[in-house]
Amino acid sequence: MEELLLIEDDHMLGRALTAALGQEGWRVAHCEDAASARAALVDHAFAAVLLDLGLPGGSGLEVLTMMRSRYDPTPVLIITARDQLSDRVRGLDAGADDYIVKPFQRDEMLARLRAVLRRSRGEVTPLLRWRDVEVDPAARTVTRGGKRVSLSASEYNILVALLQARGRVLSRDQLRDRLYGGDAEIGSNTVAVYVHQLRRKLGDEVVLTELGFGYRAGSED
Question: At a CB cut-off of 8 Å and minimum separation 6, what does 109 contact?
């Protein structure tokens, strides 16, 4: 199991992030000040670093500068309450791979972490497209006409499954299994609810119903 380094001085937020990352299968080392963060980075190798900028005993930027001066390529996701453009520019110029501003949603933080890890490993995930809808599986983002569309995790997973099927029909049971891993207690009509939400957000033709069979992605014509 790979390990992440979380550098965050807010104890409660640090615990919450550690728990969220643990649910995704990560081991997490948590430092609450700049000195312990610098020591951890010297003594250990981490898959990625989640870095707050405001720290006791020094700034997050100083920690990041130290890393890059040692030619440490570990991907860094800055997590901070500083939302000024100048702060973001300084962080990225200092060598951060991405930047997320507090308060943020857990799913967005996880998506950005996955994206920086993919980029650092040279992994390329092709975009999925349907007309003017674009899905970035690496970042778990969806846009329509260039504008971000907010989908629930279940809506997103159904959309990806149908786009990856390239026009093939997927039954309700297949989609339910994709969402819940075959849990028999989850009714297949739940899929219909998520399909309805997808149509409302992305257009009626994004998902077509094949009566008696299931659903498929609409044609791109």
Answer: 17, 20, 50, 77, 79, 100
